[in-house]
């Protein structure tokens, strides 16, 4: 290494590594590459420059950032253990490192090593110890990867550590290949492929050619170029709209794929995005999790992996840390828990290789409503095509028989009309017929659905409802019943032990952190309790972020520790900590032999442990209080225990008499009536002859003849806003049912707090247990379920049974769920709603909508948006069909009577643009109103067009047809245009202007199909007002300034008043129309 004087006075360091320069950021010790010129130098942040003699001292060059950090830190170390002696110079020098020399002298992660590690799981090629591989990857299996910089006192990088960002650079990001979203040019090209537009393009080309041949270049290009420009405008608007919606759906798809993963970093368990997982991470797995990357199992308990997405087999894979330790990205944890060492991420995983060939198109699939509207549009288009063909035949017949003229051209006269003029006239007739098809085909219907779905999905995201499947958006508006979980959805999901029954003694939790009463328990009992809490848990305790001392865990200051785990697990751990439990010390006193993880079917969890000191094997159980008590034959009585007698390490118990059992059950009911979740803890010892089988994976933990230790009551308060939300959704005609695994008394108490049950409800059928639901016959279930509001002690199969029965009764069912076993019910329901915080990845993948904050109020907001979607589609459908009926009727009658149509091709294309794109944008983006939640659900098979819509549509169409035909046949007389040279052109312009203005006024009518006050909420919808205002301004430009393009002529102010007055009459007509009684309403 050579040192040379820098050009400036400030100290600087220049490192050339793989043709890139590496430097240190101002606020970070992590180096990053900068591709500058070879002679570019960077400021060394006031570190004293140095010279390192590579001939005498070994430099650890594992990764580039380590070199940079080490170099910049040499000033503080005289004797550096891994890199040797560094000589510091106190003058300013510029340093250049000979990388090739360093590579030849020092080990590093070679490309072969990186490829080997990344392919371990894909090739099933690893027979060593994962601990050895962890050392190679610079990973501490107990503390995970470091999270901070070397300058911090603990939890940070050592000098041979590799930063998170550096690992991403070397091994890649944990992002899977996705199908790229359609680009703007692709969307424009798709819009160009519309059949009717292609035909119009041909017509425009023919019109341009014949026009220039007939009238010369200066005058003959107007018609053809005008048509071409109108087509281009339609293509641009359609393509840009499709492009924006495609981008929106892709962004939402990325949100769906972004899952949270629990990793160990810096000795703490933290949740990070799956995209932030790196090679070397220690990932914690539990039931319902999706394996976020390829890796090796470090340790696991009763771990069962579902690899059906790879193998197609329904059998589960049982990994083993020493033989079959491979875990594949994308597989799911079906049972148990454990930890894994990440060896490959992103495209390097087996799942990543599969994703290169696949793409997630959930956001691009057509919804049922889109399919129905497409079918309706196709049918209407066929009607329009039939009318256009009939019109084509009539116009051609009239032209050749001399009954009419086309656009002022002379009638066909045999022997006088030349071929060019005849062909030009036929092209004009044909283009009019094609344009009728363009106007008749309501391609704006699917566009309106796309717009309202994209708009609603974006707004629902802000309301904590992430849509995974588009169909759920519209179905949510038809929901007639919501089956909701209790914990975390109706409650705040923050468990706290407020009372307990330990060895026959009631203990009420104190307000301060320490619980002095727990200290009065005998040491042997406290030791047994602590062992059951620590070893039979999926949670953990670690130093708080502000502290790095393990000794602080032994204190009683809540700020000194953090607890990770589910709310129930965390509540038990805090309860133990308050009693003086030392988590790490207790865990080291025994070792785990076998685990039975908690699941919602058995509602219990067990663990077999071997005591280090006494070599005894004990089995600890915890779970639903009445279930654990039913497994017990003994109980511990405080009076029979000597407080500090340690001669008997594990206290014995008294036989539980029938009377004592009833007394304990009464205690459980008393706690449950106070809306407490009751969890019991019990244990038993294993007989000597059973000890040899304890380590076998098939060994079943003994679950009878247990000794009851304690019953704890946990409070999970009802969310304060839930009661009002339940009232709102009930008023909307949606029945709320609570389905929970809790005790019946606890469930009833919470239901009363939430407003699902009335205070003092004594009807036994209002609140039932899952066993009762299962015992009913199909007929009894259909008879009794309409009155059921609470199902307690429910199994996942009960939730599925409930959904199936309600659906057979014609209900549209929305179901919330968070567990793996909820997946069948979530899939079966019309709308599956998973929980974003407590929900497992299996539940999320099975759901249609993810409730990001686990809050019932977000479910109610999703109902509002669902209703808004259906209502917006109804409004646009009424608006567009009015335009279709009017345009077809007016043009057909005019053609039949006079052989010509009042609107030109360009004018019809402009009308098509107004009603399809701008109309959809204006009406499909109306936000939900409170009035929507005061109406009954729309039902499962609601018609696309109801009676009220037909009523409004027909009346408006009749009015518009009447005034337009009056202007067509008597307009010159009515407008007093007789004798004027441009009378026909003025009349046609008035017809065109009146027709467009009628659509604008009717657009306002369509906002409120059922209300007399059509202006309600208009001032709040700024987008609607902007679109209508912009359309009106463009219409003025079309009439007043684009005479050649639009075939119009300027109108005076009186003629404008006539147009506006005729169009404005649609408002009072709409109000009078709504006085006609609705059959639907009268039936309701």
UniProtKB/TrEMBL annotation:
GO molecular function per UniProt: ATP binding; ATP hydrolysis activity; calmodulin binding; metal ion binding; P-type calcium transporter activity
> Could you tell me which InterPro entries the record lists for this protein?
ATPase_P-typ_cation-transptr_C, ATPase_P-typ_cation-transptr_N, ATPase_P-typ_cyto_dom_N, ATPase_P-typ_P_site, ATPase_P-typ_TM_dom_sf, ATPase_P-typ_transduc_dom_A_sf, ATPase_P-type_domA, HAD-like_sf
* Record flagged with keyword Nucleus: no
Write out the transmembrane intervals. 188-212, 224-243, 379-400, 429-455, 1023-1042, 1054-1076
Question: What's a GO cellular component annotated to this UniProt protein?
Answer: plasma membrane
How does the UniProt record describe the way this protein sits in the membrane?
A: Multi-pass membrane protein
Give the chief site where it resides: membrane
Identify the EC number(s).
7.2.2.10
Show the catalytic activity: Ca(2+)(in) + ATP + H2O = Ca(2+)(out) + ADP + phosphate + H(+)
Q: Supply the SUPFAM superfamilies for this chain.
A: Calcium ATPase, transduction domain A, Calcium ATPase, transmembrane domain M, HAD-like, Metal cation-transporting ATPase, ATP-binding domain N
Q: Identify the domain of life.
A: Eukaryota
**Which controlled-vocabulary keywords does the entry list?**
ATP-binding, Calcium, Calcium transport, Calmodulin-binding, Ion transport, Magnesium, Membrane, Metal-binding, Nucleotide-binding, Translocase, Transmembrane, Transmembrane helix, Transport
Q: Where in the cell is it found?
A: Membrane
Q: Which residues form the Cation-transporting P-type ATPase N-terminal domain?
A: 124-212
Q: Report if keyword ATP-binding is assigned.
A: yes
Matching Pfam families: Cation_ATPase, Cation_ATPase_C, Cation_ATPase_N, E1-E2_ATPase
Function of the protein:
Catalyzes the hydrolysis of ATP coupled with the transport of calcium.
Matching PANTHER family, A to Z?
Answer: CALCIUM-TRANSPORTING ATPASE 13, PLASMA MEMBRANE-TYPE-RELATED, CATION TRANSPORTING ATPASE
- Spell out the family assignment given in the record's similarity comment: Belongs to the cation transport ATPase (P-type) (TC 3.A.3) family. Type IIB subfamily.
- List the protein's name: Calcium-transporting ATPase
């Amino acid at each position: 290494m050579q040192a040379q004087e820098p050009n400036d006075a400030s100290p600087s360091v220049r490192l050339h590594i793989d043709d890139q320069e590496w430097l240190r950021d101002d606020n970070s010790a992590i180096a990053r590459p900068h591709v500058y010129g070879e002679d570019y130098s960077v400021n060394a942040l006031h570190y004293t420059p140095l010279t390192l003699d590579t001939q005498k001292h070994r430099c650890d060059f594992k990764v580039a950032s380590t070199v940079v950090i080490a170099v910049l830190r040499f000033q503080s170390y005289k004797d550096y253990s891994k890199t040797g002696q560094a000589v510091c110079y106190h003058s300013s020098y510029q340093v250049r490192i000979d990388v090739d020399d360093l590579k030849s002298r020092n080990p590093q992660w070679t490309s072969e090593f990186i490829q080997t590690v990344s392919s371990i799981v894909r090739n099933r090629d690893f027979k060593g110890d994962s601990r050895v591989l962890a050392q190679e990857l610079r990973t501490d299996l107990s503390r995970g990867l470091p999270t901070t910089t070397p300058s911090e006192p603990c939890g940070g990088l050592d000098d041979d550590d590799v930063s998170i960002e550096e690992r991403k650079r070397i091994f890649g990001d944990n992002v899977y290949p996705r199908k790229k979203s359609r680009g703007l040019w692709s969307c424009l090209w798709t819009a160009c492929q519309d059949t009717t537009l292609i035909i119009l393009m041909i017509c425009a080309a023919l019109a341009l050619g014949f026009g220039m041949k007939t009238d010369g270049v200066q005058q003959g290009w107007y018609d053809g170029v005008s048509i071409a420009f109108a087509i281009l405008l339609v293509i641009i608007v359609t393509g840009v709209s499709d492009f924006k919606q495609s981008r929106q759906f892709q962004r939402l798809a990325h949100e769906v794929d972004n899952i949270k993963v629990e990793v160990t970093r810096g000795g703490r368990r933290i949740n990070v995005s799956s995209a932030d997982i790196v090679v070397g991470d220690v990932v914690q797995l539990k039931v319902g999790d999706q394996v976020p990357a390829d890796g090796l199992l470090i340790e696991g308990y009763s771990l069962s992996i579902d690899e059906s997405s790879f193998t197609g087999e329904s059998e589960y894979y049982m990994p083993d840390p020493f033989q079959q330790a491979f875990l594949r990205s994308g597989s799911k944890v079906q049972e148990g828990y454990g930890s894994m060492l990440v060896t490959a991420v992103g495209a390097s995983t087996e799942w990543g290789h599969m994703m290169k060939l696949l793409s997630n198109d959930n956001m691009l699939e057509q919804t049922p409503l889109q399919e129905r509207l497409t079918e309706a549009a196709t049918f209407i288009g066929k009607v329009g095509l039939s009318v256009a063909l009939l019109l084509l035949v009539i116009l051609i017949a009239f032209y050749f028989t001399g009954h009419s003229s086309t656009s002022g051209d002379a009638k066909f006269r045999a022997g006088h009309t030349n071929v060019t003029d005849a062909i030009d006239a036929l092209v004009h007739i044909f283009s009019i017929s094609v344009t009728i098809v363009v106007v008749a085909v309501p391609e704006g219907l699917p566009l309106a659905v796309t717009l309202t779905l994209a708009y609603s999905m974006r707004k629902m995201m802000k309301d904590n409802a992430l849509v995974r499947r588009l169909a759920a958006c519209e179905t949510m508006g038809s929901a007639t019943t919501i089956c909701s979980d209790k914990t975390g959805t109706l409650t705040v999901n923050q468990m706290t032990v407020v009372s307990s029954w330990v060895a026959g003694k009631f203990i009420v939790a104190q307000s301060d952190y320490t619980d002095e009463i727990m200290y009065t328990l005998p040491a042997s009992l406290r030791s047994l309790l602590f062992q059951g809490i620590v070893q039979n848990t999926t949670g953990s305790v670690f130093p708080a972020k502000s502290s790095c001392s393990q000794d602080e865990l032994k204190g009683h200051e809540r700020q000194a520790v953090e607890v990770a785990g589910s709310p129930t697990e965390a509540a038990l751990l805090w309860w133990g900590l308050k009693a003086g439990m030392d988590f790490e010390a207790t865990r080291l006193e025994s070792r785990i032999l076998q685990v039975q993880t908690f699941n919602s079917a058995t509602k219990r969890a067990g663990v077999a442990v071997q005591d280090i000191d006494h070599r005894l094997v004990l089995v600890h159980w915890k779970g639903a209080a009445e279930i654990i008590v039913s497994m017990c034959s003994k109980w511990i009585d405080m009076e029979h225990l000597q407080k500090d007698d340690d001669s008997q390490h594990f206290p014995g118990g008294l036989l539980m008499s029938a009377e004592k059992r009833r007394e304990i059950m009464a205690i459980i009911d008393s706690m449950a009536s106070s809306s407490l979740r009751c969890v019991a803890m019990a244990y038993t010892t294993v007989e000597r002859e059973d000890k040899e089988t304890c380590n076998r994976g098939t060994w079943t933990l003994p679950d009878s003849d247990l000794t009851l230790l304690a019953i704890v009551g946990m409070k999970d308060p009802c969310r304060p806003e839930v009661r009002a939300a339940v009232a709102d959704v009930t008023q909307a005609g949606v029945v709320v049912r609570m389905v929970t695994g809790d005790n019946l008394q606890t469930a009833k108490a919470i239901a009363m707090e939430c407003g699902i049950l009335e205070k003092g409800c004594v009807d036994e059928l209002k609140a039932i247990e899952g066993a009762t639901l299962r015992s009913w016959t199909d007929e009894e279930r259909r008879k009794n379920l309409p009155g059921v509001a609470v199902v307690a002690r429910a199994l996942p199969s009960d939730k599925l049974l409930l959904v199936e029965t309600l659906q057979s009764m014609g209900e549209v069912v929305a179901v919330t769920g968070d567990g793996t076993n909820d997946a069948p019910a979530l899939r079966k329901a019309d709308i599956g709603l998973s929980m974003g915080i407590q929900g497992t990845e299996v539940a999320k993948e099975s759901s249609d909508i993810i409730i990001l904050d686990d809050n019932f109020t977000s479910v109610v907001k999703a109902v509002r948006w669902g209703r808004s979607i259906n209502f917006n589609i109804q409004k646009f459908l009424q608006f567009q069909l009015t335009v279709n009926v009017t345009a077809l009727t007016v043009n057909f009658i005019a053609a039949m009577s006079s052989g010509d149509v009042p609107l030109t091709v360009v004018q019809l294309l402009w009308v098509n643009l107004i009603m399809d794109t701008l109309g959809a944008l204006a009406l499909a983006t109306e936000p939900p109103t409170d009035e929507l939640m005061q109406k009954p659900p729309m039902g499962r098979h609601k018609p696309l067009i109801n009676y009220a819509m037909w009523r409004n549509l027909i009346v408006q169409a009749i009015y518009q047809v009447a005034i337009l035909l009056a202007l067509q046949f008597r307009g010159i007389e009515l407008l007093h245009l007789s004798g004027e040279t441009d009378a026909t052109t003025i009349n046609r312009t008035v017809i065109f202007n009146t027709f467009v203005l009628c659509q604008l006024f009717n657009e306002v009518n369509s906002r409120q199909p059922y209300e007399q006050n059509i202006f309600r909420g208009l001032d709040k919808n700024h987008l609607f007002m902007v679109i209508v205002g912009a359309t009106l301004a463009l219409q003025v430009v079309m009439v007043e300034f684009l005479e050649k393009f639009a075939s119009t002529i300027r109108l005076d102010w009186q003629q404008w008043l006539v147009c506006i007055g005729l169009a404005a009459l649609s408002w009072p007509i709409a109000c009078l129309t709504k006085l006609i009684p609705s059959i639907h309403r009268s039936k309701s």
